[in-house]
Amino acid sequence: MTKVIGLTGGIGSGKSTIAKYIRSKGIPVYIADEEAKNLLNTPKVIEKIKNTFGETIFENQLLSKAKLAELVFNDKRKLEALNSIIHPEVHQHFKTWLKANNKEPIVVKEAAILFESGSNSDCDYVISVISPIDERISRVLARDHTTKQEVISRMNNQWSDEMRIAKSEFVIENIDLSKSYHQVDEILKKLQNQ
To answer: How far apart are CA 24 and CA 169, in angstroms?
Structure first.
């Protein structure tokens, strides 16, 4: 039976880097945020978004992800409305992906909001990636060319590290990448022996 390992962490924690490292070990990794972005372009989801948020977030019949992000990241209710459209679609897509990978001993589901979305219920174990807040902010500012205030606003829409740690079986402290990779190797070894 395939073990599903959840991988989560706040924005800028380095969970995507950890996910790439795990994938380099030959373990299938499902990146929920990437799949959610892909699903945003499906006719079914586009129609639901139009009905919920109106035409103003569309340019030339195409969804403007920038306008959508601006709309939802400043309003918790609108973010919840978007999540109620996207999360069921991602959940269904993950189930299909999992069936396609059911011969694998371990697969990983990487999701920034694993706990917030309830998709931790799909997982046998959860790994949380944590980093100091200043480090996380620096990483996101370098990566996304955004403002410090926007990063903090996104962080405020996610669970704290303490909340994630309390519900996780494993924690990776991602400050020094070589040490983080070593932690990953130790966790994978434990999981493969269970």
So the answer is: 22
